[in-house]
Design goal:
The complex is a heterodimer of chains A (about 110) and B (about 110). Chain A is mainly β and about 110 residues long. Chain A is built from no helices and ten strands. Chain B is globular and about 35 Å long. The chains are: A mainly beta (about 110), B mainly beta (about 110).
Chain lengths: ~110, ~110
């Protein structure tokens, strides 16, 4: 029979545009959040993290926003490049250093 | 540091055989995690260790799965006997706050 897998939401953007990837997390007790990037055939790669006492954190070309009121996390990528094409996962952690729970992921496709 | 090292990168085995996956963590990281990734279920945490001690193995699917961490430099995930539904990519990750992943072992059980 036909297999049914996770349907990854896909975001398609033009090279040079900004990308925003969203994530809803489930545990109001989570106090630490991470965004990961996973390219085909590779393990998830740490991009940026944020603790619950912050609502914004910036890295190189990436910004993470945290809205604890609605349990929402977003990753903004500025000037998206073809090398940014990957699946992006958010992960939450009720206590830093303990188990991470991953979201289902969003596939980012960058059109040249 | 070379990062988290997993071996083998690919494993094809017949149903019923024992499979052992290996992980060398990043030196100094107190936590080690084993994850499984499939199209059906995404990334699932199987078990994690803190200072070589198993802390939570509630994600281990059944008794056929076992994991050990005999020292701070090495961990194994064993499946005995393996079944086709165990086919997945298995990741080891280590960290002390965040988690850094290895490249994974792609397991195919035929």
């Amino acid at each position: 029979g036909e297999s049914v897998g996770l349907h990854l939401p896909t975001l398609s953007v033009q090279e040079g545009d900004n990308s925003i990837i969203n994530c809803a997390y489930s545990n109001s007790a989570s106090d630490y959040f991470i965004w990961y990037k996973q390219e085909s055939g590779k393990g998830p790669q740490f991009i940026i993290d944020i603790r619950s006492n912050m609502d914004k954190r910036q890295g190189q070309r990436v910004t993470v926003l945290l809205n604890k009121t609605v349990k929402h996390l977003s990753l903004q990528i500025a000037a998206t490049q073809p090398g940014d094409s990957a699946v992006y996962f958010c992960a939450e952690n009720p206590h830093a250093g303990n188990m991470l729970t991953f979201g289902g992921g969003t596939r980012l496709m960058v059109k040249p | 540091d070379a990062g988290v090292i997993q071996s083998p990168r690919h494993e094809v085995t017949e149903m019923g055989q024992e499979v052992t996956l290996r992980c060398k963590p990043i030196s100094g990281h107190d936590y080690l995690f084993w994850y499984r990734q499939t199209m059906m279920r995404g990334l699932e945490l199987l078990i994690y260790f803190n200072n070589n001690v198993p802390i939570d193995d509630s994600g281990m699917p059944e008794d056929r799965f076992s994991a050990k961490m005999p020292n701070a430099s090495f961990s194994t995930l064993k499946i005995q006997p393996s079944e086709p539904r165990d086919s997945a990519v298995y990741f080891c990750a280590t960290g002390d706050g965040e988690a850094f992943f290895g490249q994974g072992t792609r397991l195919t059980v035929v």
